[in-house]
Amino acid sequence: MLKISLKLGLYIFSSIFLLETVSMLYLHNHVIQSRINQELESLKSRGNSHRDVLELSYSEGTLKHIGLMESHTDTDVVITNSTGDILQSSENINAEMKTILRKTLPQVPRKGLIIQSSWKDQPYIATVTPYNSDNEYEGYVYMFKNTGEVEELIAQLNKHFLFATVLLLFFMLIIIYFLSKALTRPLIGMKEATTKLSEGNFSVTVPIRSHDELGELAQSIQSLANELNYLKKERNEFLASISHELRTPLTYIKGYADIARRKDLDVSERTSYLEIIHDESQRLNKLLDELFNMAKMDMNTFTISKETVRLASFLETIHEKVLPAFQYKKMQLHLECKEDSSIDLDPARFEQIMLNLLDNALKYSNENTVTTIKAERLPGSINISIIDQGVGIPDEDVPHIFDRLYRVEKSRARNTGGFGLGLSIVKQLVEIQGGTISVRSKLNQGTCFTIIFKGDH
After folding, report:
1. Where are the transmembrane segments (predicted)?
2. pLDDT (tens digit, 9 = 90+) per residue, 234-264?
3. What is the model's pTM?
4. What is the CATH number of domain 4-154?
């Protein structure tokens, strides 16, 4: 199986190689054709120069001078009259030249005409230029160049192109090697991180080296690792806390049951111990009920039955139900609900939410304080708040107040009677019914829980 770095390198190499091949072929052909055109134009220019000399001073000496001059160059000249008779040539005329000279010429412009441009399959490239000296002497100046020399020039160009191609491929391979390494290094790091995650090691760190898609992927993996690590710690803490919460009542039950079995106890002592066993059994049963409800909500098997209720009368019922407990503790419980709005919710579950929040206010508030149930209708929402004047929640604990088995009292004093599950269940019950819950608190000043149901009611 090919590694991703090798695959990426092959893809990049294939793409660039194809692009470079097409570009080099186009450039090669274009340069060669341009060079051939330059040679042809140079031939035509030399023919035009000889024409100018003949028209300026036509004589036998001039003809010989032109022939002699071209005999020392890499081009050949043949001068004919208007009937095709050869007047002068720089070299002996061979069969290939004669073939070109016998061609029927079209109307030749004064600037000259290319009569043979094919250098691949012909021994010569050739041009022709007409001359006319005082309307007395007329004819043509033919210029020839051996294509062998042109082919040598093309061969030199091919060598340069081949060297440039090899050099380009060499540097391209080096660049692709380092580029593929640079691109795949973050992916390899992410792969190693996900391997560790699959093995249960969630304390991984994925370096984020860029802000592109790879950086976003690394950030997502890091967020997943952090979340899994948090869930692992939460699970361990959950199991430890549950063990603690179960062990405490079971210890009480076993201990007092052993004492109650003693035959030397009188009836009042045995009854007292049995009451403790009964209370701890109820406490244990309540914990199991809360755990069972939480498990059902986690598995999405927790059902609710919504119905339309009048909010004012519903809150008034709750107020009357819990008021005696507040009065017994010498606390005041106020209800503020100016509008009797209708709202869709599960009455039993929402009553559970309110009783849990009010129970917290009762536990963590002192005598002569006020707790307020406040409901108000705002544009697009209904807000229901429980506001107390209790001990408050420390700032560092507020973000975790809805976590499972999280308790502000780290000592887990039994006189509060809680398990750290109530607010977690409250949050889930609120969200199941389409609402949100938030908390604001100041130490030694009080706490406010606010439930918001969006929409027009």
Report:
1. 6-27, 161-180
2. 677 667 666 766 776 788 788 878 888 888 7
3. 0.46
4. 3.30.450
